[in-house]
Amino acid sequence: MPDEAKLARTVATAILGIDTLWGGDVMSPSGTGRYIADSWFSDEPLPQAYTHAAAARLRETGGVAAPAPDAAALDAYLAAVDVPGAIDALAADARALGGLRGAFLAGQAESLRVMWELVEELRGRGPKVPYERCVVASTGKPPEPSRPETKRQLLAELLGVAARPEPLLAAVDSWRAERLVPRKAIKLLADGFIAELEEGTRRHVVPYLPPSLHAVPRANIEFLPIENAWFSGSMNYVGRARDARGAPLYEATYEINAALEISVPEFLDLVSHEVVPGHVTNFALAQALYVQGKLGFEGTVLTMNTRGAALSEGLANNAVLMAFGVKEVAELPDRDLRIGTLLALLQDDAKNQSSWLTWEENRPQDEVARVLRGEYLCSEERAGKLSGAWGRHPLNGRMYLPAYRAGTEKVAELRRRHPPERIIPALYQVLGLVDVVTIDRVL
After folding, report:
1. Model-level pTM?
2. Residue 291 CA: distances (Å) to CA of 108, 210, 275
3. For 222-268, what is each residue's pLDDT tens digit?
4. Distance between CA atoms of 387 and 352, rounded to whole angstroms?
């Protein structure tokens, strides 16, 4: 069995090594600086993979995916930090551990290995990584196109129009325009929605969690507008603040794209996804479980493009249903909320479709954008970013975009099959750290 301190160092080196190669900075307070390693809320010292002088140069120049990668900086970093060796060591530790924890770490090692192979591909030192290998590493399933027809039909019925692309898109655009979030009122609106969702979470989620987690702050977050972002918003879980007794304050920020075109019902869904009972709640509970000695160090470094991230996105995309204590969109109590939730789910179908069309079918960006706009009812702003900065990115496009839909469908299926007293503890890692594949072991 691997020593815990040694295992923690291996996990940290493997994750932060990959993160640094792609230009990420886990200590950045902003989502514009973070990338693969999305949190560091333990009090463990940062490894050489982060602190080495060559790492700072890579973060400064943007890593391997920069428009003009600094080849000398990449070579210097890899001469100092054995990233593939750390991934191999993590896979070996996973085999030695076995059981649920070993299976989780094995999945994480495989995701990191594919991210390393993509580094080598971009450097011209390895073959092109097959698209299927990328998607299986992050979702546990082979890639497939999205199937939006059922959601489109439900939307058409709610809006009272034909389900054909032209009338449905016109009706959605009109509906959205009449309900747009005023940009100057985002914080006020977010505070009101957080209060509403907190109450729903207290009623429909908290009773199924152990008492030791009931008092953990679930929504200690500050909303910050950000200009010219390539994302709709970035939830940045920080978790490093401590009170006078040394206990965590479970704090986070949410940077929201100031140009985001979003309706009020869609914004409620976004708040449930990013804050409560979605990401902020999920990660605060993970931090509490770590502090209580119930999760290992690997639970403290949230890692994108992995099967763990797919499960996290799936939980967040089902969060609005959880807050209202229902399993289906049709059971939500308000027509506008049902429409907004369906549009949010279609946007995640659009993320997967952008990936499929770009990397499986090699479609040009303008064609992908038209599909996302016409068939998935995205706003112009979203269709442009999902087909461009997201979809054509060599890592995000191949590994992360498919994770949203895969996680959403998995969590929805599990919530239909299992009562809340079983599925809620599993989703929030109470039964052990799990991902979109290994969660079946605890159910």
Report:
1. 0.96
2. 22, 15, 21
3. 988 776 665 667 889 999 999 999 999 999 998 887 667 789 999 99
4. 10
